[in-house]
Design brief:
The chain contains five helices and two strands, in the order αααββαα. By secondary structure, it is mainly alpha-helical. The chain has two domains: about 60 residues, Winged helix-like DNA-binding domain superfamily/Winged helix DNA-binding domain (Arc Repressor Mutant, subunit A); about 45 residues. Strand 1 and strand 2 form a beta hairpin. The longest helix is centred in the last third of the chain and has 20 residues. One of its GO terms (molecular function) is DNA-binding transcription factor activity.
């Protein structure tokens, strides 16, 4: 099951943080079609937030066709995201983890690493569309 958390300093609305985390879990293969999301009550208890916030996040995911609510049963994943099998994500995550370790050993901080990743992503996608 997905472990939801909040970053109050992110500047991102709480319901969007929840929806984004579910989407990340779908993309990474951590949630698969048929899996049940935590109930609204479970999320409210864990995160100490208003039930309407969780409901709004789940409604947003349902509107995008990613989940479906079943009255009395919960909210279930309807389809996944991502363009590669979960095994590829595992391999790439391992490689990226090593890359981050190398960067940290070279003296780079989080913002430095994020800037490098963003520049490589931007360059890669620009080259792809050129």
């Amino acid at each position: 099951m997905i472990d939801l958390h909040l970053d109050p300093g992110s500047g991102v609305a709480t319901y969007l943080q929840i929806a984004q985390q579910v989407k990340h879990a779908l993309r990474l293969g951590l949630l698969m079609p048929g899996d049940r999301l935590p109930t609204i009550k479970e999320v409210v208890t864990k995160l100490a937030i208003n039930p309407n916030t969780v409901h709004k996040a789940y409604r947003e995911l349902e509107h995008e066709g990613l989940v479906v609510g079943r009255p009395g049963m919960g909210t279930f994943v309807q389809r996944s995201l991502g363009g590669a099998p979960p095994s590829e994500y595992v391999r790439l995550r391992h490689d990226l983890t090593q890359w981050v370790r190398n960067g940290r050993e070279a003296g780079l901080g989080q913002e430095d690493l994020e800037a490098l990743i963003a520049s490589v992503l931007n360059q890669s996608f620009r080259e792809e569309t050129a």
